Amino acid sequence: MNYTIFPGKPKCFCGVFGIYGSPTASLETYYGLHALQHRGQEACGIVTRDLNGNGKSFFQIHKGEGLVTEVFAKSKVFKNLLTGSSAIGHNRYSTTGSSQSRKNIQPFLVNYRLGNLAVGHNGNLTNARELREELVNEGAIFQTTSDTEVILHLIARSRLDDQVEQIKEAIQRIEGAYSLVLLTDDKLIAARDPHGFRPLAIGKLNGAYLIASESCAFDIISAEFIREVEPGEIVVIDDDVIRTGSVKSFRIYDNTLPKNHCIFEFIYFSRPDSFIFGHNVDKMRRRLGKILARNHPVYSKNDEKIIVISVPDSSNTTALGYQTELEKLGVNCKLEIGLIRSHYIGRTFIQPGQSNREIGVRIKFNTVKGVLEGRTVVIVDDSIVRGTTSKQLVKLIREANPESIHLRISSSPITHPCYYGMDFPSKEELIAHKHNADIDSIKNYLDVDSLEYLTNDEMLEAVSEAGKDNFCDACFSGNYPTEIDLNFKKEIYEN
Predict the structure, then answer these.
(1) Of 45, 107, 389, 454, whose CB neighbour count within 10 A is largest?
(2) Helix or strand or coil: residue 242?
(3) Distance between CA 90 and CA 44 in Å, rounded?
(4) Residue 448: which domain range?
């Protein structure tokens, strides 16, 4: 059976969670993954570490396809299987690695000469093919098509006799984007790539320590946010850390290396209630909306009230910023709920053919006709990828008989694919590439009265509090901060 998540938006990569020192570790991991569900909806899994009667640790795992609430629907999984005081969890949206293979569902768990080892990975390794070939030639046998398994093999084949040192050695060989959680027999370890592409945070709950992709995973269980894992940092949590309250930290890369945070985390991916890259997502998203209004306002005839609407839920906060700034500019406007989104379709809505894609938009959205009819309507959205969904959404709004429709996008035109864990389609499928970044041509295709994007400079201005030079904007500019394996470029769309 083929499942289709609604097209039109960039797909989230993955979410990771880890906890050490809690008697209910698997439950807290479950809730953490629930809060991170937006980062991956294809599959999820949890690995726990417990002690047997002889004081020897053993690992248990439960994973499957579906949402967190589907995979962990039975409470006996927590009571009878996922016991112990330490755990890691993972939400999956496939980027590298086949989405159809259950073997690719993380966390991955192995037992090797130094004991048990489990890993969860958010991101993409850009030299995975090269490392995989090398490992296979040395006799390694791979069970999955995921780049994450490369990390496990590098650790397991290390000749060093300390697991932390093995992990350091492995990390020095991988390139690209990675936020990692690893669980050993006596440690929880977190690591972040030196560019800081993906967010990763440290929290604390009743003496236990937590790691999560976003701070919103701490809020759901009333845990305290401590700080972010720094780019190029490895964090180690063990019994000594629980006793002393001092997290062990190691640097394997010079912290003066340039940062390349994924700007799409602020634009779309992260939840607005999260704290990433040193700032609140909500604040940054509102700033994107304000800069969008300041540089690309909409005016109506005869000073009639303009209706500003978001495409729920990802652009809600940006629309707030847009309307607020538009009002400051003296424009008679009002923020309204013009689209109602259904929250009950789940991930497995089946679309039996491309000709029926329109029903996907109608099942997901419906218009509030009384709000839109006869009005100048501004739709604020965060991005346009293929343009298929945007076109159908505009058609749906047209049926409500507005005076005019104006589309405002809080990012630049997406013209290049991402190789750092964000699942954009191939370059040829991107609407901005198809139309040679000609905004008028895209406007005509979408059938809107006007279309404006933020320019790259305007977009970076909006997030400048976090440093204009601290972001990766490769999907907009084509300027990749690391070298990309040409074969990797091909493979990322075939897996």
Answers:
(1) 107
(2) helix
(3) 5
(4) 283-471
Are the C-beta atoms of 60 and 26 separated by less than 8 Å?
Answer: no
Round to whole Å and give the CA distance between 467 and 473. 13
Catalytic option among 14, 44, 333, 418: 14
pLDDT digits (tens, 9 = 90+) for 54-92: 999 999 999 999 999 999 999 999 999 999 999 999 999
| Separation between Cα atoms, residue 331 and residue 408, nearest integer Å | 16
Co-location of 244 and 316 in the same domain: no
Sign of CA dihedral 378, 379, 382, 386: negative
The answer to whether the peptide bond before residue 469 is cis (omega within 30 degrees of 0) is no
Last residue of a domain, one of 204, 223, 257: 257
How far apart CA 405 and CA 447 sit, in angstroms, is 9
DSSP per position, 4-70: -PPTTSPBP-EEEEEEES-TTHHHHHHHHHHHTGGG--SEEEEEEEEE-TTS-EEEEEEEEES-HHH
d(CA 258, CA 275): 21
Asked, for residue 114, whether it belongs to a domain, the answer is: yes
pLDDT mean over 424-453: 93
Where do we find the tokens 């370890």? 189
Quickly tell me which residue has 């093999």 as its tokens.
Answer: 153
260-307 pLDDT per residue, tens: 999 999 999 999 999 999 999 999 999 999 999 999 999 988 889 999
pLDDT score of 487: 62
CATH number at residue 390: 3.40.50.2020
Confidence of residue 10 (pLDDT cuts 50, 70, 90): low
* Prediction pTM value: 0.92
Respond yes or no on whether the N-terminal peptide bond of residue 10 is cis (omega within 30° of 0): no
For residue 283, with 0-12 CB atoms within 10 Å meaning exposed, 13-18 middle and 19 or more buried, which class applies? middle
Annotated active-site residue 14? The verdict is yes
Residue whose tokens read 């440690």: 187
How far is it, in rounded angstroms, from Cα 347 to Cα 39?
13
